[in-house]
Amino acid sequence: MSSLNVENILNALRAVRDPDLNRDIVSLNFIKDIKIEGKDVSFSIELTTPACPVKDEMKAQAENVVRQNIPEIGKLNVTMTAIVSKRSNMQAMPILTGAKNTIAVASGKGGVGKSTVAVNLAVSLARQGATVGLIDCDIYGPSIPLMFNINEKPQMHNQKLVPLEKYGVKVMSIGFLIDSTQAVIWRGPMASGAVKQFMTDVEWGELDYLVFDLPPGTGDIQLTLVQQIPITGAVIVTTPQEMSLTDARRGMAMFNKVNVPILGVIENMSYFISSNGERENIFDTGGGKKVAEQFKVPFLGEIPIYTKIRIGSDSGRPITDSEPDSEPAKIFQTISKNLAAQISINNLSKQSAPIEISLGTN
């Protein structure tokens, strides 16, 4: 009797586990569209994010276990797909209903390169196949127009602003609506109101990830954001020295108080590689990992001081787009994958209904 059937294929695939979600890919309902034609087999593995850090390894492992357990298989075609998981409290949000996940990128103080990190994470996620938006929440010092080299103004459609798009990312900033030499002299409630309008009066459409580039500190804008929508989680950007870490701790404490999960810590300006190839720890080292351990949250990665990262920000061409194969761009890609994995873990842990297993079709 032939062992080539759907049940045996699924049983073999139970040996493949998602290391982040800590469950096998069958019970996670990742296996879709099993087809058997003679001795040839095809199926899809549908991940929770296109930025899965172990996508290639998972595909190879799935192919190996199926062939080992069912040696009579002829051709085997495994297709990797993804549908980004949604935050569990999405239904409770009256605005931004098309955004599956909302990510606050924050820091306790200015000057740590938070906007540079937010931009490159957004571009990296988009390059990996996700639909991504970014809101520049720094009303007093908007830097996103420069970092994307966008000079035009957004258009209106159905009485809403249409976000501008570049490098695969939909973007909105107060800098698109005012003259670049004009100072925004507003009290806190007015600035908070502008951020609220970016959520309610902009036609964002369907997004896998909406990134909020927050201003430094723990003030009105941060509180407005968490009061208006359920945030999937926050990312804390810091530099390694104690002065920055002290403020990062305050930021993390604020998010804990308002029940926003911390998705992880990123250490920017972590080290410098000199012209002779030696590593120099200009701002100390290891502080980001230390504060992540203190708060028992993931450490997403460290980003070096690299001249072309700064050039990319100043010229409006993020390094993740201009030099995607460079070492710093690969670091951003790895961090974005780590972030996407934490979002999937966070979403799965909050699911109230059990996952149903799809057996596919013969």
Total count of helical runs of at least 4 residues: 11
* Total domain modules: 2
Structural class: alpha/beta
Shape: globular
Amount of beta strand: 15-25%
What is the typical, i.e. mean, pLDDT?
88
CATH superfamily of the largest domain: P-loop containing nucleotide triphosphate hydrolases
* CATH C-level name of the largest domain: Alpha Beta
- Beta strands, count: 17
Q: Major sheet: size, sense and barrel closure?
A: 8 strands, mixed
Q: Could you estimate the helical fraction of the residues in percent?
A: 25-40%
CATH topology of the largest domain: the name is Rossmann fold
List the secondary-structure elements in sequence, H or E. HEEEEHEEHEHEEEEHEHEHEEEHEHHH
Distance between the termini: 17 Å
**Strands ordered across the widest β-sheet:** 10-11-7-12-6-13-14-17
CATH architecture of the largest domain: 3-Layer(aba) Sandwich
Radius of gyration: 22 Å
What low-confidence regions span 5 or more consecutive residues with pLDDT below 50? 352-362
